[in-house]
Write a structure and sequence with these properties.
Layout lengths: L2 E6 L4 H12 L4 E7 L4 H11 L3 E4 L2 H10 L4 E4 H9 L6 E4 L7 H9 L3 E4 L3 H16 L4 E3 L2 H9 L8 E8 L17 H4 L9 H9 L1 H14 L6 E5 L5 E7 L4 E5 L5 H9 L14 H4 L5 E2 L6 H12 L3 H17 L5 H12 L10 H18 L1
Helix pairs in contact: 4-5, 5-6, 6-10, 6-14, 9-14, 10-13, 13-15, 14-15, 14-16
The structure holds NADPH dihydro-nicotinamide-adenine-dinucleotide phosphate and magnesium ion.
């Protein structure tokens, strides 16, 4: 059976890797709907290449323009557009590879309709983990991780019982500034921050890796995906990015999943799950060439946003929502050259100390707090 996919964020880095996997297995996968935001040049190429039935773009004007150009494709736009393209009856699996909090609502729509979710967009679980996982449980929908660390843990857990897990060990490369002291971070530039040592990814997540916010988001994502307490989720610095993550079991056994730094692997695993299928042109992986693997304790003083993510995860409620919203605005401001690198931390820390914390929020409250936090951080810029 050909699995029919809705790909949210087709023009991005995860989108591109997903398309490579789909193109390598036309007998197994087809992209029936896709989205992009504003990258029209690449979007046009993808429409020609993939011939989707339905496409969501950023604005109505762009949707109208493209409708004239591609009369056989249905165009829609905005966040509602993302929800429309995942809702096509033929879609089996939705791969959420948009960047940022815009991933939440279409993911909820897809779960409501019983579609399997291949989740790359980590902001969805950080913003609204309890709502998303509750709905998935009620609708009997599987959330398949695409993030490499969570895919690694998920693979290590196959056939195992969560009750027999002692702890999860998430590996962190350390990002582009891992060799720099905090003092040296004062004058770093955007182009320095975008030079990730191991992975080629979108801008936002590359900056998140440099601030270590990415690992913080991943800790919260792991909490919701695997239902484990925060004291059972640890982070270790592993500069080679060969071990994608590990699971320690109660009997002392440790399972680790390894591989090249190639996002096609976790994407393909999510799409082909529960089976494995051959990888086309796999990146070489030879431990004798790699030679040695290194692991170091995480320094929370050096990376305060990781400590903050644990703190906000444990607080629960709207704390991670605020953290995520503040981080999106502050990171975008750094990318736009409006604030220095270290100010990202300052703004995120300040945003979580706000008074409007709610312990058991519903979706409306989460969306309100998200908007309020964004506006607040914008007012500080
Ligand atoms: P990119 O920045 O490369 O791509 C983002 C995609 O989302 C693009 O298609 C972009 O469209 C679209 N987009 C951006 N803003 C909006 C918006 N407001 N509304 C609708 N669509 C929008 O991101 P990545 O591929 O790197 O990451 C995607 C997600 O996956 C993130 O949540 C990230 O944390 C997660 N992730 C990424 C990994 C990676 O290897 N890159 C690994 C693990 C997780 P356009 O191009 O037209 O602007
Ligand atoms: Mg990751």
């Amino acid at each position: 059976m050909v699995k029919k996919i809705s790909l949210l964020g087709a023009t991005g880095s995860v989108g591109e890797n997903t398309i490579a996997v789909v193109m390598a297995h036309p007998d197994k996968f087809k992209i029936n709907s896709l989205s992009f935001y504003q990258n029209v040049k690449k979007g046009r190429e993808l429409i020609r290449l993939l011939q989707p039935k339905m496409v969501a773009v950023g604005t109505q004007a762009l949707a109208n323009e493209l409708s004239l150009e591609f009369p056989n494709v249905i165009f829609t736009y905005g966040v509602e557009g993302l929800s429309e393209i995942v809702a096509l009856p033929e879609i089996d699996i939705v791969l959420t590879a948009v960047s940022g909090s815009v991933g939440l609502l279409p993911t909820l729509t897809a779960i409501e309709l019983g579609k399997t979710i291949a989740l790359a967009n980590k902001e969805t679980l950080v913003m609204a983990g309890s709502i998303v996982t509750d709905l998935a449980r009620r609708k009997n929908v599987q959330l398949l991780p695409v993030d490499s660390e969570h895919s690694a843990i998920f693979q290590c857990l196959q056939g195992e019982r969560l009750a027999e897990v002692d702890q999860l060990m998430i590996t962190a490369s350390g990002g582009s500034f891992r060799e720099k002291s905090r003092l040296e971070l004062e004058n770093v530039t955007l182009s320095d921050a975008l030079k990730h040592p191991n992975w080629s990814m979108g801008q936002k997540i590359t900056i998140d890796s440099a601030t270590m916010m990415n690992k913080g988001l991943e800790v919260i994502e792991a909490h919701w995906l695997f239902g484990l307490d925060y004291d059972k989720i640890k982070v270790v610095l592993h500069k080679e990015s060969i071990v994608h993550s590990m699971v320690h079991f109660v009997d002392g056994a440790v399972m680790a999943q390894m591989g090249a730094s190639d996002m096609r692997e976790p994407i393909q695993y999510a799409l082909s799950y529960p089976r494995r299928i051959p990888m086309k042109q796999p990146k070489p992986f030879d431990l004798t060439t790699i030679g040695a693997l290194h692991f170091e304790k995480m320094d929370f003083q050096r990376f305060p946003l990781l400590a903050l993510a644990y703190e906000s995860g444990k607080m629960g409620g709207t704390a991670p929502t605020m953290m995520n919203a503040a981080n999106e605005i502050a990171t975008a401001a750094f990318i736009a050259g409006e604030i220095p690198f270290l100010a990202i931390e300052t703004y995120v820390e300040k945003a979580i100390k706000m008074e409007n914390y709610v312990k058991h929020p519903d979706l409306t409250t989460i969306l309100t707090v998200d908007t309020e936090t964004r506006n607040l951080v914008k007012s500080w810029l």
